Amino acid sequence: MTATGSDPMRIVHGECVAEMAKLPDKSVDLIFADPPYNLQLGGGLRRPEGSEVDAVDDEWDRFDSFAAYDEFSRSWLGEARRILKDTGSLWVIGSYHNIFRVGATLQDLGYWILNDIIWRKTNPMPNFKGTRFTNAHETLIWCAKSEQARYRFNYHAMKALNDDLQMRSDWSIPLCTGAEREKLNGRKAHPTQKPEELLYRVLLACSEPGDLVLDPFLGSGTTGAVAKRLGRRFMGIEREETYIGVARSRIERARQVELDALEISRGRRAQPRVPFGALLETGLIRPGTPLWDARRRFEARVRADGSILHGKEAGSIHKIGAQVQNAPSCNGWTFWHMEEAGSLMPLDALRQRYRDQQQTG
Amino acid sequence: MTATGSDPMRIVHGECVAEMAKLPDKSVDLIFADPPYNLQLGGGLRRPEGSEVDAVDDEWDRFDSFAAYDEFSRSWLGEARRILKDTGSLWVIGSYHNIFRVGATLQDLGYWILNDIIWRKTNPMPNFKGTRFTNAHETLIWCAKSEQARYRFNYHAMKALNDDLQMRSDWSIPLCTGAEREKLNGRKAHPTQKPEELLYRVLLACSEPGDLVLDPFLGSGTTGAVAKRLGRRFMGIEREETYIGVARSRIERARQVELDALEISRGRRAQPRVPFGALLETGLIRPGTPLWDARRRFEARVRADGSILHGKEAGSIHKIGAQVQNAPSCNGWTFWHMEEAGSLMPLDALRQRYRDQQQTG
DNA sequence: TGGTTTTATGAATCTTTTA
DNA sequence: CTAAAAGATTCATAAAACC
């Protein structure tokens, strides 16, 4: 049976390069790949309360060096390019550990990058040790087979999916948790299962019903499940037998549905939250500015990092506002005021000014 | 005059590699770089031997220009690494055209990536032809000099700037427009002027007042203007004479905020270490005092040497705290409490009292 | 049954100082 | 140098447990 044979949902147990080598030239419409990230984690990481983080320490994610990882990337990306139709495109997802190397390798092989897409996680794991910024996103690279290639892009479908606004390169999508997360003996079946919402967008943007979609690192089978929902043909390659079983039963359970399935995740039009610090960064308020409450009973001063100082106590506008009133909580935006043209203006007015700026630029 | 000389705001007209070569080893605290990435335009790009890279129009040229760009990256990133202090860090900003190559080169040179940061543009230019997703972000890479290097990161200041939530790796910031945009004869003075909000965050996170900040591709001078506002020393290097003039007048106009407003929030790590025994020596706590955890599940007694006794086990507040919870570690300062006025007060409050005494007394 | 509190957990390159 | 001790550190969400 070939990839273009009678089984529209094919799962293959094997090495991705060897299995791709069996496919004819220019036979695949879309490739989505989630290769190992080369995380190389050290010891166990503990949360502040003492519990241990269940990290990725699998054998398949270990490489001896950057050179070894690059060689691995070249081999699977090279074979992928051969079997990709001229109208097809390739997506790869990764993090800062590997994505820069993958991107450079892509370019070296002649792929033409169309966009880099940011999966902005709405609920990422925090940085428990306070040593870095919360690693709150992953990066996807979308590329065509070459600079000249005429690739498929369903522009209007993407625009419709985004309330008739052109779809941007940053996508806010939650982690895969809850009922969607595949379980095996009550534990997560795969350490890095991707949310279906992410794949839904990719497949809807870059393929048609009946197209052949390939995932060379199948894992828990998200790509296959979404391909089936959207009426695409599919081929998935996976090395680990355990994951083959997980993916097979998952894709079996998936049902082709109407395109309204994503409706729920769209309505994100709330007023964006503004941290007080943003007003300092933009110069709407300056470090050193005195703040008062409406009746000028309390005074505090703004510091460069957005905390405010009252006596010897420093903290957020909310925390210090609550403290001076001896109240359990306080809305600093309405409590604190700054002087403007001789009268007091609540910080909330400044916040509105900031939001206006953000919109108009 | 050296970089550490008398002029705190130094602007140099020249090639960045040649000018960096004049600086001593380990002399710079923070480097922010916005290198050219116009692979197609040739103007910013020269091969190592000096010839100019032609426009890209066939496959051979493309490989040639990628190689030339990588060579260019290696040369300036290598020199930057030499002059960077062991506690310093480097930021580079770019887009999908160049950032993957820069990131791979960074790693090859031994830099250690700490985060990739997404500048999410609130008002990006749309994709007019409807051929791709709106390119709505740029990527910054933040890295330390090596895996082992202990870099500066003002974690608590970043947290304060974000309303007491850990700062994430995606930053929503508008494009630089309006009054902030530098003009020359009524037209924009520089094609890619970065918003000050972006640099404010970078400098506040990774430097201290008085630190030396270097920008090897000065452009319109945003890094210099923010460095001056925040009381950092600065050196900027720029090849184009026109931009030198723009940046010089801009930095001249910038005003430093008051010194005491530059104070930022510090964590407990920044405060002097207090041995528990010191509280006994000063009489803030007495031998024999009973200690409890917050829920009064465990009790221990203070001994004269600063160890505590729980049952038959004696040890430090940390060791015994870990032992009773059956945890791998424990912060005894926050775990143990003593009774005061009928309620429980954490030892941490007592430690603060001790520190206040040391300051005033 | 319903509302509140507690617990579990997610691709993580996750400490610093002293002996 | 290594080993041990001190001690600093978390956000959003869902499920489970508890009133």
Automatic annotation (TrEMBL), chains A, B:
<protein>
    <recommendedName>
        <fullName>Methyltransferase</fullName>
        <ecNumber>2.1.1.-</ecNumber>
    </recommendedName>
</protein>
<keyword id="KW-0808">Transferase</keyword>
<keyword id="KW-0235">DNA replication</keyword>
<dbReference type="InterPro" id="IPR002941">
    <property type="entry name" value="DNA_methylase_N4/N6"/>
</dbReference>
<keyword id="KW-0238">DNA-binding</keyword>
<dbReference type="Pfam" id="PF01555">
    <property type="entry name" value="N6_N4_Mtase"/>
</dbReference>
<feature type="domain" description="RAMA">
    <location>
        <begin position="263"/>
        <end position="359"/>
    </location>
</feature>
<dbReference type="InterPro" id="IPR029063">
    <property type="entry name" value="SAM-dependent_MTases_sf"/>
</dbReference>
<dbReference type="GO" id="GO:0008170">
    <property type="term" value="F:N-methyltransferase activity"/>
</dbReference>
<dbReference type="InterPro" id="IPR002052">
    <property type="entry name" value="DNA_methylase_N6_adenine_CS"/>
</dbReference>
<dbReference type="GO" id="GO:0005737">
    <property type="term" value="C:cytoplasm"/>
</dbReference>
<dbReference type="Pfam" id="PF18755">
    <property type="entry name" value="RAMA"/>
</dbReference>
<feature type="domain" description="DNA methylase N-4/N-6">
    <location>
        <begin position="28"/>
        <end position="247"/>
    </location>
</feature>
<keyword id="KW-0949">S-adenosyl-L-methionine</keyword>
<dbReference type="GO" id="GO:0006260">
    <property type="term" value="P:DNA replication"/>
</dbReference>
<dbReference type="GO" id="GO:0009007">
    <property type="term" value="F:site-specific DNA-methyltransferase (adenine-specific) activity"/>
</dbReference>
<comment type="similarity">
    <text>Belongs to the N(4)/N(6)-methyltransferase family.</text>
</comment>
<dbReference type="GO" id="GO:0032259">
    <property type="term" value="P:methylation"/>
</dbReference>
<dbReference type="InterPro" id="IPR040843">
    <property type="entry name" value="RAMA"/>
</dbReference>
<keyword id="KW-0489">Methyltransferase</keyword>
<dbReference type="GO" id="GO:0003677">
    <property type="term" value="F:DNA binding"/>
</dbReference>
<dbReference type="InterPro" id="IPR001091">
    <property type="entry name" value="RM_Methyltransferase"/>
</dbReference>
